[in-house]
Fold this protein.
Amino acid sequence: MQSFIVEHYLQKNVDVYCGGPDTFQGIVEACADGVLTLRKEDKYTHIAIDKIIAIWEK
């Protein structure tokens, strides 16, 4: 999943679904060591890749 995200979504605006009410939005800044980093309005969200159910470009 990590290499897929880097290849297809790096520096793109995405939505990330992790189940239930957990949806995150932002620009993919990095994806390394099992962690996806999103940036939104100069704030960063770090998501464990193994918790991601779906990701799509906005």
In short: DSSP finds one helix and five strands in the chain. Helices lie at 2-9. The longest helix spans residues 2-9.
